[in-house]
Amino acid sequence: MFDEKIAPLADAIRSRTSLKAIYKSEPREFSPHALGKGRYGEDVVLVYQYAGMSGGRPTAGLPPERCWRMFVLEDLRDLSPADGGWHSHESYQAAQERLTGISIAIEMETPQQPPAFGEAAGNQA
Fold first, then answer.
1. Burial degree of 20 (CB within 10 A; 0-12, 13-18, 19+)
2. Full residue range of the structural domain in which residue 100 is found
3. Non-local CB neighbours of 84 within 8 Å, separated by 6+ positions
4. Tens digit of pLDDT for each residue in 2-44?
5. Do residues 64 and 70 make contact, with C-beta atoms less than 8 angstroms apart?
6. What is the pTM of this model?
7. Pick the residue with more confidence: 116 or 71?
8. 76 located within any domain
9. How many C-beta atoms surround the C-beta of residue 64 within 10 A?
10. C-alpha span between 39 and 42 (Å, rounded)
11. CB atoms within 10 A of CB 5
12. Within a domain: residue 125?
């Protein structure tokens, strides 16, 4: 049963595909970013939840930095692909720090640095 959850989550992380599932009896739509361990050693997935419910409330309208969730894998069921594209936020690195161990994670692209003062764009030193 555990592998039934790991494989689709790992595939979604690698391909940046969003999923939908039931977590703690509530429908969720999310983009998984990392698989790892929670602070008590439980197997978790770090997700950016963009639709559905959380704690009995809709997630629509939440500020982007408050859309990060850690789902304990044993409480996650009925995983399937979701429409809606990939969702993320620049606060990913801070959210990822909540994991105590990471087995797979996306690599966030870093913005290109502007040229140093006095250096023309595109010049190589």
1. middle
2. 2-105
3. 18, 29, 50, 51
4. 577 899 999 999 999 999 999 999 999 999 999 999 999 999 9
5. no
6. 0.79
7. 71
8. yes
9. 13
10. 7
11. 19
12. no
- Rg of the chain taking only CA atoms, in angstroms: 17
List, in sequence order, every residue forming a beta bridge with 23; answer none if it has no partner: 26, 76
Report the distance separating Cα 58 and Cα 33, nearest Å.
21
- Is residue 72 within 8 A of residue 42, CB to CB? The reply is yes
The string of pLDDT tens digits covering residues 39-81 is: 999 999 999 999 999 988 888 888 888 889 999 999 999 999 9
Burial of 13 (0-12, 13-18, 19+ CB in 10 A): buried
Q: Which residue has the tokens 């894998």?
A: 73
Q: Is the pLDDT of residue 1 over 70?
A: no
**Within a domain: residue 47?**
yes
14 burial via Cβ count (<10 Å: 0-12, 13-18, 19+): exposed
Give the pairing of strands 57-58 and 43-54: antiparallel
Please count the structural domains in the chain: 1
Q: Is residue 7 part of a domain?
A: yes
In the three-class reduction of DSSP (H, G, I as helix; E, B as strand; rest coil), residue 7 is classed as helix
